[in-house]
């Protein structure tokens, strides 16, 4: 292999860590400064350089340069500084890089860019992006609903790249076996269409049959080229996400993060909160604010938990309410989505249904004990609303989950203060501890990043054919138990510093469930061994085995 190609391949490059012998053998002598560093030294030096960067965006661009050059070094560093790097590599800083992707573009990061205008190129593009690698995991987006910031066209590819980086640092998914994909079907974002720098297809989003045919073609080609694929869908729009999931979930090994991943982490958070408050799930009144992809996905997951805990469908439904733009959702509303319909209420249940057109009125009317925000509307959990909720429940469970930071429905600190320390809070992005009246409240992060890596590891290691509701429920329960109910101010979810440990817990639960249900392609005698075997660690390998 051409020595320059080795240095330019992030999966092979070791930079200054190439030994004298390797430099001789592969023609690298004289192509690097003389000193040979070990990985630890490289990481230390790179981290010191990282610390000279002042803004989060600069920090992310610097880390991405390392990622582009040398995957082992990048993941070594990331694993050493998970808590510090997560908000930089991933949400919320990733939102800035998505919004500015075209202007900031330097390197395509081994992604596949698939265009609806060239469906015949899907196969060759996937092959080219794989470059002969055995792809086991794809994160694909069409970027219509990136976080809460909307439609970002081709620029959304960064969410696929970012989600995959978290898979590796959290669960040890081999970075040479993953592929980020963006489906460029156009964009309705006027700012992009008018930006001369925009790198995507400069036309409106294609919808309808042509859209679904393109999705089908992509899924079919990807499944054929990569037979052991786990296909993760991310940030599709509200009109498509559930439709696509329902179409494929019983046929291929696939997952929708916003619907299923978010459902798992929120159920785990509620289980943690109830462990702290010593209350029963089936006594709760649940209010979903922002009944879109995530909101409906979460509601369904919590509702399924009520059924599992013995309630009939009819009894369980009485505990659930949804509020969207129009206010409380009623069953006579022709605009309801299929996911909203089961939870819409009858007007006859209320004395003044016509007044239930905003969150404040609904909270006052139904007295929720759990309020989960996935509305993309910042500051909508106001002091008045939170105080009204807290007046009727001892330990209100309040999760403002809209991302990035600027879109959160409330700040954790305010929720703690407004409820005099009674609220059990989790946020979508990392939130600092809150000190209030002598107690330090830790804020759990209810972000699907806490579950999707372990889920993926469990699915891949167990060779599961499908990811079904039973596996999803087991994943949520495995995380929901990890809280310390006796420590005042304890978080409802485990801390991000333990990301690798609880990814392992989730992986074991999911893999075991696949085995128990007979859902694996290959016989698995020990799920722990299967998982161990699958795990990649950031260490340099002998190049002889790789070339
Ligand atoms: N923490 C997490 O892990 C996590 C996971 C997924 C999504 N999210 C966040 O949840 C938010 C929603 O994401 P999504 O994928 O569900 O988007 P979506 O577009 O599918 O859903 C948003 C919903 O909010 C509704 N909405 C808009 N304005 C409203 C208002 N004023 N009042 C009430 N409802 C309103 C919309 O009509 C829509 O139904 C985003 O900010 C996203 O970042 C967080
Ligand atoms: O990406 C995140 O931070 C979580 C989630 O998938 C989202 O869309 O907000
Ligand atoms: Mn998402």
TrEMBL record:
<dbReference type="InterPro" id="IPR015884">
    <property type="entry name" value="Malic_enzyme_CS"/>
</dbReference>
<feature type="binding site">
    <location>
        <position position="234"/>
    </location>
    <ligand>
        <name>a divalent metal cation</name>
    </ligand>
</feature>
<feature type="binding site">
    <location>
        <position position="258"/>
    </location>
    <ligand>
        <name>a divalent metal cation</name>
    </ligand>
</feature>
<feature type="binding site">
    <location>
        <position position="235"/>
    </location>
    <ligand>
        <name>a divalent metal cation</name>
    </ligand>
</feature>
<dbReference type="InterPro" id="IPR012302">
    <property type="entry name" value="Malic_NAD-bd"/>
</dbReference>
<dbReference type="GO" id="GO:0030145">
    <property type="term" value="F:manganese ion binding"/>
</dbReference>
<feature type="domain" description="Malic enzyme N-terminal">
    <location>
        <begin position="67"/>
        <end position="249"/>
    </location>
</feature>
<comment type="similarity">
    <text>Belongs to the malic enzymes family.</text>
</comment>
<dbReference type="GO" id="GO:0004470">
    <property type="term" value="F:malic enzyme activity"/>
</dbReference>
<dbReference type="GO" id="GO:0005829">
    <property type="term" value="C:cytosol"/>
</dbReference>
<dbReference type="InterPro" id="IPR046346">
    <property type="entry name" value="Aminoacid_DH-like_N_sf"/>
</dbReference>
<feature type="binding site">
    <location>
        <position position="403"/>
    </location>
    <ligand>
        <name>(S)-malate</name>
    </ligand>
</feature>
<dbReference type="Pfam" id="PF00390">
    <property type="entry name" value="malic"/>
</dbReference>
<keyword id="KW-0479">Metal-binding</keyword>
<protein>
    <recommendedName>
        <fullName>Malolactic enzyme</fullName>
        <ecNumber>4.1.1.101</ecNumber>
    </recommendedName>
</protein>
<feature type="active site" description="Proton donor">
    <location>
        <position position="90"/>
    </location>
</feature>
<dbReference type="InterPro" id="IPR001891">
    <property type="entry name" value="Malic_OxRdtase"/>
</dbReference>
<keyword id="KW-0520">NAD</keyword>
<feature type="domain" description="Malic enzyme NAD-binding">
    <location>
        <begin position="259"/>
        <end position="515"/>
    </location>
</feature>
<dbReference type="GO" id="GO:0043883">
    <property type="term" value="F:malolactic enzyme activity"/>
</dbReference>
<dbReference type="GO" id="GO:0051287">
    <property type="term" value="F:NAD binding"/>
</dbReference>
<keyword id="KW-0456">Lyase</keyword>
<dbReference type="GO" id="GO:0043464">
    <property type="term" value="P:malolactic fermentation"/>
</dbReference>
<dbReference type="InterPro" id="IPR048182">
    <property type="entry name" value="Malolactic_enz"/>
</dbReference>
<dbReference type="InterPro" id="IPR036291">
    <property type="entry name" value="NAD(P)-bd_dom_sf"/>
</dbReference>
<dbReference type="GO" id="GO:0006108">
    <property type="term" value="P:malate metabolic process"/>
</dbReference>
<feature type="binding site">
    <location>
        <position position="447"/>
    </location>
    <ligand>
        <name>(S)-malate</name>
    </ligand>
</feature>
<comment type="subunit">
    <text>Homodimer.</text>
</comment>
<dbReference type="GO" id="GO:0016616">
    <property type="term" value="F:oxidoreductase activity, acting on the CH-OH group of donors, NAD or NADP as acceptor"/>
</dbReference>
<keyword id="KW-0464">Manganese</keyword>
<dbReference type="InterPro" id="IPR012301">
    <property type="entry name" value="Malic_N_dom"/>
</dbReference>
<dbReference type="Pfam" id="PF03949">
    <property type="entry name" value="Malic_M"/>
</dbReference>
<dbReference type="InterPro" id="IPR037062">
    <property type="entry name" value="Malic_N_dom_sf"/>
</dbReference>
<feature type="active site" description="Proton acceptor">
    <location>
        <position position="163"/>
    </location>
</feature>
